[in-house]
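Throughout our pipeline, every protein is held as a single compact record rather than as scattered files. Such a record has a labelled line for the sequence and another for the backbone structure tokens. This encoding replaces a full spatial description with a residue-level series of whole-number codes. For reference, a complete record is included directly beneath this paragraph.
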Amino acid sequence: MFEYYPGLGGSLPWVSLTKLPTPITRRGWPGRPGQRIWIKRDDLSSPLYGGNKMRKLEFLLGRALAENRKAVMIFGVVGSNHVLATARCCRKLGLDCIAILSRQPATSYLAANLAAVARSGARTCDYPRIGEQAMAAVTELRREKKRTGIYPLLIPAGGSNATGATGFVSAAFELRRQIEQGLLAEPDFIYMAMGTTGSVAGLGLGLAAAGLDSRVIAVRVVDGSIANPRVLESLWRRTVMRLRKYDDNFPDLPFDPGRFEIRQQYLGAGYARGTPEGRIAVAIGRKLGLKLEGTYTGKTLAAMNDDLADPAFAAKVLFWNTANSRALAPANGLDLSLLDPALQKYLSVKKKPG
């Protein structure tokens, strides 16, 4: 993106946390001779932690440093990948990390994620109900201001604001460059999990700015009150405004709902609750050489699996792997004093699929 809009490169706060571009691989679809897909390996986005969050954090934490913040405050569930990615990056950059955590269903990765957050030095704060988080933020903001003299930067759940979405605007230009290099043909459809919408909104906007016609198949993995067309449109418009603030050569692109097709039917019983289709897709992912999970990427690959099962479906497709494939240390052996006492019980939760 900085190459296409040099004004952004000279003014937009940013810090390097990734190893880009992430690879493009092509794989045959298991059990279907002749059917092939491309995969964008964002699971390898950084040695610190893989997945889509790292692209957002380059701009979010770049902003924190530019504003001379001492800390950031983040929000998420106890097994949040975003919280973990942020905690690890903050440690690398010398920023304090305050994590306001609410409850979620037990998953196979919850304990390892939470333990890794604690080992990264984040201060974990247990506020069980999401509705408590606004009051929690006020309390913790005042505490941090008293301690350091400056308020921490607030980062929303998933890093999904105009600052974070910019990471995926840039990702679209990265994809354009890889197409120009002949690493893949321009996809008709790009499959991506849609949680807090930042990655999807940023990618759709970036595709438009980069002159690509690809559409985003956004597989909703959270409640519709969190991820819906209104949220997408708002985030698109706010991201355009932010980018034009730093470089008015960036096009004033109107929201294009045709860039997105939201798939509602793969959520199942709710966030972090596995589905039979998702479990099948996770197994397919293993055959493709991918380490997927049942909350986000398994459900997304399930949507692709259903589309590819249609004999009339002949589109060029790209699966954007937003999971992390970097290994985490086991949760056992953690010094429990590093964790809010109310959260320690999660380290002994019986694992469930997904």
Remarks:
- The CA atoms of residues 216 and 342 lie 40 Å apart.
- The domain at 6-52+160-320 is CATH 3.40.50.1100 (Rossmann fold).
- The first helix runs from residue 6 to 11.
- Strands lie at 24-28, 36-40, 71-77, 96-102, 123-126, 153-155, 189-194, 215-220, 260-263, 317-320.
